[in-house]
Amino acid sequence: MANDYEPWVSADKEIQELTLRVVIIGILLGAVMTAANAYLGLYVGMTVSASIPAAVMSMLILRGFKFKDVTILENNAVQTMASAGESLAAGVIFTVPALLVIGLWTDIQWFETLSIAVLGGLLGTMFTIALRHLFIVEEALPYPEGVACKEVLVAGEQGGSGLIAIVYALGIGAIYGWFVKGFRVTHQHVEGGINFLGTRLYGGAELSLALLSVGYIVGLRIASFIFLGGVIGFGILVPLFGLIRGWPGSGDIVEDFYTIWSSEIRYIGVGAMIVGGVYTLWSMKDTIKDGLMKALKAANSEEDSNILRTEKDIPIDKVIIACGVLVLLTFFFYWYATGSIVLALSGALFLAAVSFFFAAVAGYIAGVVGSSNSPVSGMTIATMIFTIGLVWVIGDLILGLGTKELMLATMFIAAIVATSAAIAGDVMQDLKTGHMVGATPYRQQTAEVIGVLVGAIVIGPVLSLLHKAFQISKTACLATNDRIESGIVERNIGGDSGVLYNCDNALIAPQAELIGAIVQGAFGGGLNLQMVILGAIIAVFLIRLKMPVMSVAIGIYLPLSLSVPIMAGGLISHFLLSGTRLRVDGNLDGAPSKNAKEAMKEVQDRGVLIGAGFIAGESLMGVLLAVFIVANIDPAELLGVGTLGNAFSMLFFGWFVSVFITLAAQSMPKNGNLVTDSLGVVKQAWIDFIDAFKLPPQDE
């Protein structure tokens, strides 16, 4: 169903957008965001979406320097450029450092890293241009972080109560994020496990205001299916696996749960995502075909001037030519990297098909859960499985290449596809924001290209510097120390010549370690294909039950603790919106009245605004923390206090949740209170639950 959303800047208006000052500020912010997120991802295993922090920083810079006539579309273009580098960093750091882990590289190779980043980043961008109208206009996917970013931009443009609310929420989110992540006053997550009937049960939750806000924005339906996936993974599959195959025996129930999940169950999520992605694209095949044909027809017609400004993409014929050139360049890169023209040709053709598939899947997933929570590493694993099959057939069976050459070819082919998928989700999210604020798509897409190129130039030197200073992964660190002891290399940064690295301080790079283990296992006979196949079977059952398979698959792949705050946010949204309707209509039967719809929209918009502030605040603190860590400063040591226990951590988080609810509820009608609203919503839910099990009346 097409989206009839009215943009903030109407299509018939022409205002400043991609100006010189925007390009300069976007390049500078993009470089900073790329470096910060590369470090953060290698240090803690996850990155933060830079769109909202970049939007906030853009407003502060453009308005702080008293630039005249600053427009909302200029701010949008800056955040577009800055966030591109962050997403590119996510794709690169999950794959390129794996070459260090498996010993194919001893240091980061700048040219190869630049090539992977440029080719993958631009391919992902080009593919999403072709899919923009489908996902954003036709399917109207929610893109929670894109919506939140739009609220930040509009609040900055409007000023008044909206700006005050989002600044207030941003401050609260920043305080919470800094106390939890910077000062480590409370736990970032609480979890535990018990022995139960011969197996074990797990419970846990990530104490994240950002994830809570994502749940509020996407709503109860999507949040509940993501949570269902988490319950299937951690509540059913892990206990069953432990019961049947035995537990690792570490002595810690939670650690055993994560060991089984990371080595076995997450591959079920990968298999489900592969089938879910194929099914999603297959179900949209006619829409995709029609959309591409219309775009080609418009590009070749004389009526292009009649297209609305807000619907003018980079012409699809130019996009197709650009994709062709990128695939050709990829062929030459693979030929250079592997030395085999047959493998290079196979890899380039494989890339053209599979990269489009994963770019589409990444764009769709970002539309459901946002790019911060998009399982890029899961798509990277799926890419690896496809790539391993190709390289095994062409490289091993046909060409008879050695193990080292096979692993190198696999890594280079998969790295470009993974980078393409990583950038695609962010690009689509940014284009959603642009669609809502009234940006000109081809200008925003141009900004994306600039941002990708900036990130690609920055990422290689940053990774090289981090590796020389800290070592990327403990595995690579131990190998480097062996070479230092053998006199092969000297330590030049972060220590005297000949001094060994302290591998306890190495960047953990969990995704790179995982990818390296998969590649080594694949060519040594240890690939976990049976779990991938099981995931594919589960996905088929979900499809037969007409359930949103991608949402459930994401939940299986992600830890249950991440699904819990998303579910909580969805429940808060449901209770506030249903309570609003109850106050207006007096009941929850049938369809809501016109007045109730208007009141519910006002509450929803207010909650999204507060959620956007919380996401921005927590994300900015993640970036700031990366700066402190690089400077070798531990904020927790400066404060000098310990970490509170689980109970107090939950109370601390609960207080901020109550603040969220209070702020969002301020726009509800005043003829009621949250307690009676909640009782009314629960009562109606119980009635609906009982009715669902009643037999239909029999015809007499």
Describe the overall structure.
By secondary structure, the protein is mostly helical. It has one domain. It has 25 helices and 2 strands. It has helices spanning 20-44, 51-64, 72-93, 98-101, 110-138, 144-158, 160-182, 209-218, 220-245, 253-283, 285-299, 316-338, 341-369, 376-398, 403-437, 441-469, 474-485, 510-522, 529-544, 549-557, 560-585, 594-630, 635-639, 646-665, 674-692; strands spanning 189-196, 199-206. A two-stranded antiparallel sheet has the order 1-2. A hairpin with a 2-residue loop joins β1 and β2 (199-206). α7 crosses α22, α8 (209-218) runs antiparallel to α22 and α14 packs parallel to α18. The longest helix has 37 residues, at 594-630. The mean pLDDT is 80.
Features:
73% helix; two-stranded antiparallel ribbon; mainly alpha; 700 residues; globular; 2% strand
Q: How would you sum up the global shape?
A: globular
Strand order of the largest sheet: 1-2
Order of helices and strands: HHHHHHHEEHHHHHHHHHHHHHHHHHH
* Percent of residues in β-strands: under 5%
Q: Provide mean pLDDT, rounded.
A: 80
- Rg over alpha carbons: 25 Å
Biggest sheet layout: 2 strands, antiparallel
Q: Briefly note the structural class of the backbone.
A: mainly alpha
Question: Quick one: how many beta strands?
Answer: 2
- Which runs of at least 5 residues are low in confidence (pLDDT < 50)? none
Please report the number of helical segments. 25
* N- to C-terminal distance: 40 Å
Number of domains: 1
Estimate the helix proportion, in percent: over 70%
